[in-house]
Amino acid sequence: MKLQLPVCPHCGQKVGYVRAWFLKQEGEYRCPNCGGFSGVFLSTAAPMFGSVAVVISVVVFLVLRLITGGLPFYGVLLMALPYALFFLAAPFLVRLRKPGMRKRPPAPPRPGTPPPYPPGNRPGQGPDENHSFRRF
Q1: What is the pLDDT of residues 24-52, one digit of tens each?
Q2: Is the distance from CB of 78 to CB of 60 less than 8 angstroms?
Q3: How many angstroms separate the CA atoms of 42 and 46, rounded?
């Protein structure tokens, strides 16, 4: 797990902090240097960092509630601190990958077009299998 700004998988150019921050909401990135397209993904550590921020905030809330009996203003700021840190670290959790080659499924036949093989002459079917001829 590396906390680093995303890098173009085609040419290796780093993406700026502000661009990476907005990039995490997009699904595709086009490199201004080489023109290559990349898919945008979040690091596998992103949910972990988010969960840690929630747990820290809940612990701060419970401790302040037990100690002070209420929730003072500085307690709200202390609870917001983990979320602010996660917000600032979010661009370092963005990853770029080259798009993978996907196999396209065969297109369904259009209505009104004949099937690729006439009935009874499909590969692997002889006259005995489709019962179009009788033996005497």
Answers
A1: 777 788 888 888 888 888 888 888 988 99
A2: yes
A3: 7
Is the pLDDT at 55 greater than 90? The verdict is yes
Output 58-66 pairs: Cβ under 8 A, ≥24 positions apart.
none
Between the CA of residue 111 and those of 8, 106, 108, what are the distances in Å?
A: 44, 15, 9
Show the 3-state SS of the chain. CCCCCCECCCCCCECCHHHHHHHCCCCEEECCCCCCEEEEEECCCHHHHHHHHHHHHHHHHHHHHHHHCCCCHHHHHHHHHHHHHHHHHHHHHEEEECCCCCCCCCCCCCCCCCCCCCCCCCCCCCHHHHCCCCCC
Residue that has been written with the tokens 């077009």 in this structure: 113
For residue 30, the cross-strand partners are 37
pLDDT digits (tens, 9 = 90+) for 68-91: 887 788 888 888 999 999 988 888
Do 38 and 99 touch, CB atoms closer than 8 A? Answer: yes
Token pair, residue 48, equals 């972990």
